[in-house]
Amino acid sequence: MPGSSLWLLPPARTHPLHDVLATLIARTLPARFPHASSSTDPRVAPHFFPPHVTLTSGIAPDRYLLAGEDGRRGEGPQAWLEGVLRGLEEWREEFGPHVSLMYGDVPIGEQTLKEITAVVREAGVNLGGEEGADGKGWDGWDGWDGGVVWLVPTDKPMAEWKPIATVEL
Questions:
Q1: Exposed site from 2, 6, 155, 163, fewest CB < 10 Å?
Q2: How many CA atoms lie within 13 A of 45 on its CB side?
Q3: Mind listing the pLDDT tens digit for each residue in 64-74?
Q4: Which range of residues forms the domain containing residue 162?
Q5: Looking at the 3D structure of the chain, how many domains does it have?
Q6: pTM for this prediction
């Protein structure tokens, strides 16, 4: 994917959804759906990443860097992140946030997507618009308060997806 992405990570030590998502990402989904969590290049092993919601993606660094007092673009990751945050209103309408559970370049069919969705729901994750077992409310988790926002260079190989800048909420 071109450009960088903003990820919202759940609080690592204080919210149970962090561990549930981490288990889905690193163990459950790759074991149950090995083809869907792979690459067309057999030399590329699955890459595991921290649990997160992708807030937006395709952030071009040359477009969203802040201009400094001398008129040049700001330098450094913090200036970049501040510039990105200013553009979020525009991106909000272009790209919907989503929970990222698998990355790969193998297309996932509709039936496999339904099966993945069922596994995620069984783990207690609310994917939106769902009722609980009693038909009234959801029995699992559907979000979290706080966390950390990461700016991640997702235009690089997955093994290089390390945060460029972070902001704790």
A1: 2
A2: 5
A3: 555 444 445 55
A4: 4-62+95-127+140-168
A5: 1
A6: 0.69
